[in-house]
Design brief:
Bound molecules: 4'-deoxy-4'-aminopyridoxal-5'-phosphate
CATH superfamily of the largest domain: D-amino Acid Aminotransferase, subunit A, domain 2
Largest sheet: 9 strands, mixed
Strand content: 25-35%
Order of helices and strands: EEHEEEHHEEEHEEEEHEHEEEHE
Distance between the termini: 22 Å
CATH architecture of the largest domain: Alpha-Beta Barrel
CATH topology of the largest domain: D-amino Acid Aminotransferase, Chain A, domain 2
Number of domains: 2
Length: 321
């Protein structure tokens, strides 16, 4: 779909996958005026195709659009684009357990204009790619690296928006994490408060079952995190969404009050965190409590997504009907 200041949203169409043409002066190539979303299509046992809480992705994309001075795509257009793609590509939604069709909606400034101001011509696209099981040999805890030198986003910046620039700034610390044998990087806010990982939110588990997750203006509000915390609240867990310092985590782990942590996001769903490593710094958890909780919440959430567990919150939206 295209958008122009004068014509609004127009020309929706489905076309075969292939390269797109851009003017070398297209604003997105210079000023990164760009946003995206990520969600999945799941095939249920009866063959029907569903997606999970897409109105939340549509709303988050609108918030991202606002921050990046892009036009808001109405939710009904967003949902229609998912259904249109499934109408032609439904065969690609796999049938094996834990596999899905990853859906990537994105919007960028395509106006050829080198001045720094919001573009007057924008394009919205949706592409899709089959996604295999994230963990082939069962869910394994991940180790995470504490980035002390770099931040992903700062207060008043674009941290809460899903925009490429945030990911560009996380690439170098992510590479640093790999060098230290860690799969993900943890970002802090001003060196004190926990924020999030490169592509996932973080939740700490207390011994009494309370779940603590960072409140911050500069993190992405994950739809998986919100869903997991609601499932946990349904089971009677207390939920605290508030500022959390690294010291609180370290001291809590040392005293045994914090028994572990997990990360969550659309791609991996929920992953237990094994160790947190940094320069001269380490947090290690002992005992199975947090890992067992993470895996059981994961089972329930994927159960809902794949149609094995009752969708009591009404989170699923059918895409092939
Ligand atoms: N934080 C970041 C930086 C992310 O890229 C993602 C993945 N979209 C998340 C958190 C988790 O968000 P969601 O659960 O909506 O996938």
């Amino acid at each position: 779909v295209c958008w122009s200041e004068r014509g609004g949203w127009h020309r929706p169409r489905v076309s075969p996958y292939g390269p797109i043409q851009l003017d070398p002066a297209a604003a997105v190539l210079h000023y990164a005026q760009e946003i995206f979303e990520g969600l999945k299509a799941y095939r249920h046992a009866d063959g029907s195709i569903w997606t999970f809480r897409p109105y939340e992705n549509a709303a988050r994309m609108q918030r991202s659009a606002h921050r990046l001075a892009l036009p808001e795509l109405p939710s009904e257009h967003f949902i229609a684009s998912l259904k249109q793609l499934i109408a032609v590509d439904g065969d690609w939604v796999p049938t094996a357990p834990e596999t899905s069709l990853y859906l990537r909606p994105f919007m960028f400034a395509k106006e050829a204009f080198l001045g720094v101001r919001p573009a007057k011509k924008v394009a919205y696209y949706l592409i899709a790619s089959p996604a295999g099981a994230y963990f082939s040999g069962g869910v394994q805890p991940v180790n995470i690296w504490l980035s002390s030198e770099y931040a992903r986003a700062s207060k008043g910046g674009t941290g809460a928006a899903k925009t490429g620039g945030n990911y560009a700034s996380s690439l170098l610390p992510q590479a640093e994490a790999y060098e230290h044998g860690c799969q993900q990087v943890l970002f802090l806010d001003e060196g004190t408060y926990l924020e999030e990982l490169g592509g996932m939110n973080i939740v700490l588990v207390r011994k009494d079952g309370t779940l603590i997750t960072p409140e911050s203006e500069s993190i992405l509000e994950g739809i998986t995190r919100d869903s997991v915390l609601r499932l946990a609240a349904d089971r009677g867990h207390l939920i605290e969404q508030r500022k959390v310092t690294l010291d609180e985590w370290r001291d809590g782990a040392a005293s045994g009050d914090i028994v572990g942590a997990f990360a969550c996001g659309t791609a991996a769903v929920i992953v237990p965190i094994g160790r947190l490593l940094g320069e001269d710094f380490e947090i290690v958890h002992n005992g199975p409590q947090a890992e067992e909780l993470a895996l059981s919440l994961r089972e329930e959430l994927t159960g809902i997504q794949y149609g094995r567990v009752e969708d009591r919150h009404g989170w699923l939206v059918r895409l092939d009907a």
